[in-house]
UniProtKB/TrEMBL annotation:
<dbReference type="Pfam" id="PF13596">
    <property type="entry name" value="PAS_10"/>
</dbReference>
<protein>
    <recommendedName>
        <fullName>PAS domain-containing protein</fullName>
    </recommendedName>
</protein>
<dbReference type="InterPro" id="IPR035965">
    <property type="entry name" value="PAS-like_dom_sf"/>
</dbReference>
Length: 115
């Protein structure tokens, strides 16, 4: 099995949306759960190759994402953004090349465990 296909299957098995964007905030990959979330639930179409800010149209959201990615460029780690309306914690996770340089980031969601 080719590596790219295998990685796609692995990411598609994750039960939360994963959306990868490059350092110019262009969406390059969405797992199946992200496609469902953005296309079916939120009504967007054909986001691959488009700006992340096409679906984050709030100026405050854009500012937070841009600031967070700047911190990631300076070798920052995963950053917590907020808890969404589904009670999921949303993070931005850096993706780096073999030299440690930031090549992009992905949004990661997880259930917010409250006691």
């Amino acid at each position: 099995m080719e590596r790219e296909k295998l990685l796609s299957y692995i990411l598609d098995s994750y039960p939360y949306p994963i959306l990868f964007a490059d350092c110019d905030h262009i969406i390059r990959y969405m797992n199946k759960r992200a496609q469902y979330h953005y296309y079916r639930e939120r009504g967007y179409r054909d986001l691959i190759g488009k700006s992340l800010f096409d679906c984050h149209q709030n100026a405050k959201s854009e500012e937070i994402i841009r600031e967070t990615v700047e911190r990631l460029k300076n070798h920052g780690n995963e950053a917590f953004l907020h808890v969404n309306v589904r009670n999921e914690r949303v993070y931005i996770v850096p993706v780096r090349d073999e030299n440690g340089e930031l090549i992009g980031y992905f949004e990661r969601f997880e259930m917010n465990q409250q006691k």
